Amino acid sequence: MDRKSLWRRYVEFPVIYKIVIAFILGAIIGALVGVDVMSAIKPLGDLLIRLLKMIVAPIILFSLVVGAASIKPSRLGKVGIEIMVYYLATSACAV
């Protein structure tokens, strides 16, 4: 099997199955390794969570901006206010 077909199979494999497999493998590995190993890799997990939190706000903001940009200018005033209220409310809840 060549490398390109292996990559193609990986990309075409449904994401939900990848998530379930990773969850099961993580649970098995977590049960098999000791506390020392888990405490050693904890900073990597903390870093991942911080990076995910850091990227959420810009994604939401840019998706709202793109959505507002696709609206007709005549409706933008009312919808723009609703978007800003929604964004501020969800940001306040997230913090």
TrEMBL record:
- Where does the chain cross the membrane? 20-41, 47-69
Gene Ontology terms: biological process: carboxylic acid transport
Transport as a keyword of this entry, yes or no, is yes
- Answer yes or no on keyword Transport: yes
- Membrane topology for this entry? Multi-pass membrane protein
A GO molecular-function annotation: symporter activity
Record's subcellular location = Cell membrane
Q: Which UniProt keywords apply?
A: Cell membrane, Membrane, Symport, Transmembrane, Transmembrane helix, Transport
Q: Which Pfam families match?
A: SDF (PF00375)
Q: Which GO terms describe its cellular component?
A: plasma membrane
What name goes with this protein?
Dicarboxylate/amino acid:cation symporter
Origin species, per record, is Ignisphaera aggregans
